[in-house]
Design a protein that fits this description.
This protein is α+β, with helices and mostly antiparallel strands. Helix content is 29%, strand content 44%. It is elongated and about 50 Å long.
Length: 86
């Protein structure tokens, strides 16, 4: 059950917060109706010498699950609090 909810949560963030292709979650926990993920997303940047650097960010993301479905309103609130969306 947690794995299904974690997948729904990751899908929501991919659709609404612009996660890059290749983003996945490393772990998931649940407290009542809130599923919290550690999202791993690939990043690419240029360092101070001009060299291209590849890496991965790890950022928490939370979703509200109600009746087996994402509660969009509360999930947006969690995403704003986590600085995923404005």
């Amino acid at each position: 059950m947690l794995e299904e909810e974690a997948r729904m949560c990751l899908d929501w963030y991919q659709k609404n917060a612009g996660l890059p292709p290749g983003a996945t979650y490393l772990s998931a926990t649940k407290d009542r109706r809130v599923v919290t993920l550690v999202v791993a997303a690939p990043v690419s940047m240029t360092n101070h010498t001009g060299a291209r650097v590849q890496g991965t960010t790890q950022t928490p993301a939370s979703c509200e699950i109600n009746g087996g479905k994402i509660d969009d309103g509360w999930t947006r609130t969690h995403a704003r609090r986590g600085n995923w969306i404005q």
